[in-house]
Write a structure and sequence with these properties.
The strands form four sheets. Strands 3, 4, 5, 10, 11, 13 and 14 form a seven-stranded antiparallel β-sheet that branches. The chain is of the alpha+beta class. Strand 16 and strand 17 form a beta hairpin.
Length: about 325
């Protein structure tokens, strides 16, 4: 691999490091040290963006190296069968430059679509480690804390084994007490019913294993879009329902729209080439004294209107 010892060109922009590429030419490469702005501290974070390990992450610290692989001792465990036990090493040197090195893996490592044995990394770079897609980002401490809480929620008991969402048992056992607590504290409560658009076509065209990956991806995007204590339930098949306390229908609409846009804009091509995914949503505010079934039926009716009007949209119940 060519030597990439940093050079020192004049008039280099702040936060950039000069390195030589394979042709020996000097290029600019962003240093990836944790940085502090007036608004937030940002930390280099490597995050899985597709597949069953989606949202798994690790932060990179100066002077630290992280092994990626299936080995239980790896700093970031990736469960995909195409990943070697010790697949790659990510390092942040004392000079704050982050690099990745393939460790002689069976299925190779790529950065932004190019196979590599060793490469420097910059924010936004996409990595392919065996069959797993990852991205390097600068995240705030608040974003990292929320990400950690989402990952912890996925590991709790009584979760749907595929998506990590709550199961329908939560509706039978915990929804009524949840509604009662909201009634006693005069807390507004909203239900959002989501349904993946044309999910059968995804299964028919790409196979059920890709359909499962889509469900996993959508579930994780939804969990990341809401607060840590907002219940999200896999209602059945491709239907997901979430309950938002301390929210009126307008706030719920903003949440639902954020979820819809995040899912539509997600890079599904990394799950399967040519794959696109969208969701529809229906929203209903709970009226104290109303039964759970009647309330959820109103949200489901609003969802039906969203699908009837063309899908990939959110509708508020007007009852």
């Amino acid at each position: 691999m060519p030597d990439r010892t940093p050079k020192q060109p004049r008039n280099r922009p702040p936060g950039k490091e000069a390195v030589t590429d394979d042709a020996g030419e000097v290029t600019l490469h962003q240093r990836l040290q944790p940085r502090v702005s007036r608004q937030r501290v940002e930390v280099p974070t490597l995050r899985v963006v597709a597949g069953r390990d989606m949202l798994s992450y690790v932060t990179i610290q100066p002077g630290e190296e992280v092994i990626l692989g299936r080995d239980e001792a790896a700093g970031m465990i990736l469960t995909d069968a195409l990943v070697s036990r010790r697949h790659a090493r990510v390092t942040m040197a004392d000079d704050q430059l982050v690099s990745i090195q393939d460790l002689g893996s069976t299925n190779g490592t790529a950065v932004n679509g190019q196979p590599i044995s060793r490469s420097l990394l910059a924010p936004g770079d996409h990595l392919e480690v065996g069959g797993v897609s990852l991205r390097l980002d600068l995240l705030s401490l608040e974003e990292i804390d929320h990400l950690a809480n989402v990952v912890a929620r996925l590991k709790l008991q009584n979760r749907d084994p595929l998506t990590g969402l709550l199961t329908r048992a939560w509706l039978d056992e915990d929804l009524a007490p949840f509604m009662e607590r909201c009634a006693c504290s005069h807390t507004p409560l909203v239900c959002i019913f989501f349904d993946l658009d044309h999910f059968k076509q995804v299964n028919d065209r790409f196979g059920h294993h890709i359909g499962d990956d889509v469900l996993v991806g959508c579930a994780r995007l939804m969990l990341f879009a809401v607060r840590d204590n907002d219940p999200c339930v896999r209602y059945g098949g491709e239907e997901i329902v979430m309950f938002l306390a301390h929210a009126d229908v307008h706030a719920a609409f903003e949440v639902a729209e954020r979820v819809r846009k995040e899912i539509q804009a997600h890079d599904w091509d990394r799950t399967a080439p040519g794959l696109t995914v969208s969701v529809s949503g229906g929203i209903a505010r709970w009226t104290p004294g109303e039964g759970a079934r009647e309330w959820m039926a109103r949200a489901d009716a609003a969802l039906f209107i969203a699908k009837r009007e063309g899908r990939n949209r959110v509708v508020i119940d007007r009852a």
